């Protein structure tokens, strides 16, 4: 995936590798969510180009892009009038998957995220924040795309729930070997999940590298702006 957008962001050029988890870290207003929306095709580019597996991200390719990129927005984006199973299967149904295929994949995803089967008939309002997060993850990953994008997916959860989910996600992403890009302002989340950390500041990508490499560089932006102001996350 190559990107070089130029819209309320400074010039950015970066190539993401598959089977890696990238934590896009930055304070509010740094441009990280703007960049993520550009990767989904939800925010058109004024200049530059983004490609996903050779497919250009542009208005005419959004249907094909949806089969290559799964996206989980910050507020989960669940439809309140649909049950869990209807929310999770919606995109597959719109793409013409038959009921047998949808049912089989729904069972796979229920097992994968450890959601009790009885939850499938509930509506989002009848579930806890942690349960809704699992449902949103199921919907994001339902088509088994090669790329998954997450925009502040854990920000609404309490610390205990967040810590439990981070441990599950770290194991899950390691198992699936997908390209994952996760937007966060949390050093804890970035350290727990990111194989690579990309630090954004004022619309620019200012540095990238593993947590270990960046944290050992006293001149690193990560050290100056994040580690020096926070306790390091537990291993």
Question: What can you see in these coordinates?
Answer:
With 235 residues, the protein is α/β, with parallel strands linked by helices. It folds into 2 domains: 1-68 and 147-235, Rossmann fold (3-Layer(aba) Sandwich); 79-144, no CATH class. Helix content is 37%, strand content 17%. The protein has 9 helices and 10 strands. It has helices spanning 32-40, 62-66, 84-94, 99-113, 129-141, 159-176, 187-193, 211-215, 221-225, and strands at 2-3, 14-15, 21-25, 50-52, 55-56, 69-72, 147-151, 179-184, 196-201, 204-209. The strands form 2 sheets. The chain has a 6-stranded mixed sheet, sandwiched between helices. Strand 7 (147-151), helix 6 and strand 8 (179-184) form a beta-alpha-beta unit. Helix 3 (84-94) packs parallel to helix 5 and helix 4 packs across helix 5 (129-141). The radius of gyration is 18 Å and the shape is globular. Residues 1-7 and 231-235 have low confidence and may be disordered.
């Amino acid at each position: 995936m190559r990107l070089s957008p130029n819209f309320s962001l400074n010039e950015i050029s970066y190539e993401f590798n598959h089977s890696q988890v990238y934590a896009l870290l930055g304070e509010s207003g740094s441009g990280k969510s703007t960049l993520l929306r550009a990767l989904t095709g939800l925010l058109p580019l004024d200049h530059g180009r983004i490609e996903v597996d050779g497919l250009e991200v542009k208005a005419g390719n959004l249907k094909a892009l949806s089969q290559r990129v799964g996206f989980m927005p910050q507020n989960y984006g669940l439809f309140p009038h649909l049950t869990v199973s209807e929310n999770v299967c919606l995109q597959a149904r719109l793409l013409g998957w038959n009921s047998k295929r949808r049912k089989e994949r729904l069972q796979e995803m229920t097992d994968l995220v450890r959601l009790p089967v009885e939850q499938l008939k509930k509506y989002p309002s009848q579930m806890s924040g942690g349960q809704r997060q699992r449902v949103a993850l199921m919907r994001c990953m339902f088509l088994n795309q090669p790329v998954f994008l997450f925009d502040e997916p854990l920000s609404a959860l309490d610390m205990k729930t967040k810590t439990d989910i981070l441990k599950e996600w770290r194991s899950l992403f390691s198992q699936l070997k997908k390209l994952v890009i996760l937007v966060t302002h949390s050093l804890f989340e970035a350290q727990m999940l990111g194989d690579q950390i990309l630090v954004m500041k004022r619309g620019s990508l200012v540095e990238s590298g593993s947590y270990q490499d960046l944290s050992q560089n006293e001149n690193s932006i990560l050290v100056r702006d994040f580690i020096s102001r926070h306790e390091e996350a537990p291993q």
